[in-house]
């Protein structure tokens, strides 16, 4: 005997409410095993790979690539071997006439299985740790029928009995009264590359009539519709003048989280930014010597390494710069460890992974950690753990050819240092004009915790160590 089970999108982070389907690794008909990666999702913080919780056969994919899905909503149906002691409750979605679970209630098929008894056969193996936490998320009220349910071909409350014997709860009646847009009930047939092309071009597969085998949508179908849409957009005219083309980019995942975090930080912490131009000629010379050492073989050593070490030394000299503001307790929390954040412009948006306990690392260890962190983040493989717990941040705007900026604090942190490009600059040395390599440092800090004197001292210390790298050894 077999049983159809639906895997619901789990809460893979603290308070996750939704995620985007990035890429499926399986298709209907595939055999899957417990812990086999089946899908990549993008949360508000990172791209996460989800493993299968069961052994079985994939019957349906209930969400399309590029679709935003709420936590607790089924995303895949898997046929598994049923055991004699399985509950009679099916994982198949309940019809419209059954009562929906109360808000915050854990659905029955997400409840953990009972421990196996010696005299009972073992249950089907499932992955531990999946399930929606009853108190961890707050679901948004839906105003329309979920698109995922329509696309999967599952029944919705199109008609609701109104007689006194009707078992339909009030919530179903309200949902039935809501107008439902006409959307194809069957999931459009298309290969993953075609789905990705449609997503990139903003074309809805549900609205296409496929010309491929079995009515499947082809690349030509998508490109034809995309070309028609572009042609229509060019002809938009207002008051006799062409307005040009427009593009709408959905704000989701990492980009959505970044926008929310930056707004929250900018309007909750009073920012102050100070600037310092520094002669880094000696640091650049030291950098070239370090690259030739055997301890740094295979490591991409950049000026950021010396900036990071200088900031860590400044934190040791001025611990208050590595703290956070606890408004509820009306306390300043000073961190006696440094999780050094590095702002990375990844493909999916700005993220700030951090090197845990960076202050305890040697210079070669810090170099390796910075390189690994950067490569992981740019590849879209940074985990929620990599992005959580930062205490102070560096943003390297110099890699973009920029001299300086006024960086916004990462939420929960007190300071962020911006490192501008290193370039040849006229400089006065011992009363004589010379060409030196210089850069601009920008330090933004929370003025509730850091006053001008402390902020200036930290910035001056970092600058002094970059002017003369020997000070890094003397002050640590």
Would you kindly provide a written description of the structure presented here, covering whatever features stand out?
It is a single chain. This protein has eleven helices and 21 strands. The protein has 476 residues and is α+β, with helices and mostly antiparallel strands. It has three domains: 1-184, Beta Barrel (OB fold (Dihydrolipoamide Acetyltransferase, E2P)); 188-202 and 212-232, no CATH class; 266-474, Chloramphenicol Acetyltransferase (2-Layer Sandwich), CATH 3.30.559. The strands form six sheets. Strands 11, 14, 17, 18, 19, 20 and 21 form a seven-stranded mixed beta sheet that branches. A four-stranded antiparallel beta sheet has the order 1-8-6-3, with no helix packed on it. Helix 3 (192-201) packs parallel to helix 4 (219-234) and helix 7 (303-317) packs across helix 10. It is elongated, with a radius of gyration of 28 Å. The protein starts with a strand and ends with a helix. Mean pLDDT is 76; it is low at 86-186 and 229-243.
Compact summary:
With 476 residues, the chain is of the alpha+beta class.
